[in-house]
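Project outcomes to date are best conveyed with an example. Our students and postdoctoral researchers have been running inverse folding experiments weekly, and each run begins with a structure described purely in C-alpha cells. The record below, which covers 196 residues, was selected by the lab manager from last quarter's runs and is presented without edits.
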C-alpha cells in the first residue's frame, strides 16, 4: 500500500468509552499468578506477579522487491495506532511456524513461499512466562483478503529497509517486539535517534 492510499492514523483510533480495574477478573491474554518466593540473600519472603500466556509470534515478511509487509493498528495500552510487524498468539495445539503462517495471512492477506526461524525473545521476563518467536517470511505476496478478528482493525503497508530505518530513527516505529524481529533482518543499529 502506498503512502497516498494509506489511511491516516486517526482512522485507526478507537473511541475510549471508559476504564475499570477489576482485580478479580481474568486478563484477556494472560492468566494472573502470584508466586511466593524466598530471597536466598536474606531469607525474606516476597509475593511476585506472573502473567501467564501462550507463546507469541511475529515476523518480517518480505515481498519479492524486499519490502517489508508492515501493519498499523490501534493499541489500547498506549491509546494510539502503532507501526509494527505482523504477529499474534500461538493458539493451543499450534507450533510457532503454523501460528506465524496463520497470523500473516489473517492480518495482512499475504502468504510467503519461504520461511526461516530467527529465534525467540522473552517479551518481559520480569512478569511474563512466555516467548515471542521471530520468523522471516520471504517472497510474500497477497493471496486473500484479511481475515481479522472482530476486535481488530489493521492497515497494511509495504516499507523498504530505508523507510523502516527512517521510521525507527524518527521514533515512529518503537514497538519493542517489532524492533527485535526487524533487527534480526535489517541493520537498524546504531542509528541517530531523534525521539523526544
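After processing, the design step wrote out the following sequence:
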Amino acid at each position: 500500500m502506498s503512502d497516498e492510499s494509506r489511511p491516516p492514523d486517526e482512522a485507526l483510533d478507537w473511541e475510549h468509552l471508559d476504564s475499570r480495574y477489576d482485580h478479580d477478573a481474568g486478563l484477556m491474554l494472560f492468566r494472573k499468578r502470584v508466586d511466593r518466593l524466598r530471597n536466598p540473600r536474606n531469607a525474606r519472603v516476597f509475593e511476585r506477579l506472573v502473567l501467564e500466556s501462550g507463546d507469541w509470534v511475529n515476523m518480517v515478511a518480505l515481498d519479492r522487491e524486499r519490502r517489508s509487509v508492515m501493519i498499523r493498528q490501534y493499541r489500547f495500552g498506549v491509546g494510539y495506532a502503532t507501526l509494527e510487524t505482523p504477529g499474534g498468539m500461538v493458539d493451543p495445539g499450534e507450533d510457532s511456524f503454523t501460528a506465524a503462517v496463520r497470523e500473516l495471512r489473517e492480518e495482512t492477506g499475504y502468504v510467503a513461499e519461504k520461511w526461516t526461524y530467527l529465534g525467540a525473545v522473552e517479551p518481559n521476563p520480569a512478569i511474563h512466562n512466555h516467548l515471542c518467536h521471530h520468523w522471516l517470511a520471504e517472497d510474500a505476496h497477497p493471496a486473500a483478503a484479511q481475515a481479522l478478528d472482530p476486535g481488530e482493525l489493521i492497515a497494511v503497508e509495504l516499507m523498504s529497509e530505508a523507510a523502516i530505518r527512517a521510521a525507527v530513527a524518527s521514533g515512529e516505529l518503537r514497538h519493542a517486539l517489532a524492533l527485535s524481529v526487524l533487527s534480526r533482518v535489517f541493520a537498524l543499529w546504531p542509528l541517530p535517534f531523534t525521539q523526544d
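The CA atoms of residues 5 and 21 lie 39 Å apart. The longest helix spans residues 96-108. The training component of this project remains on track.
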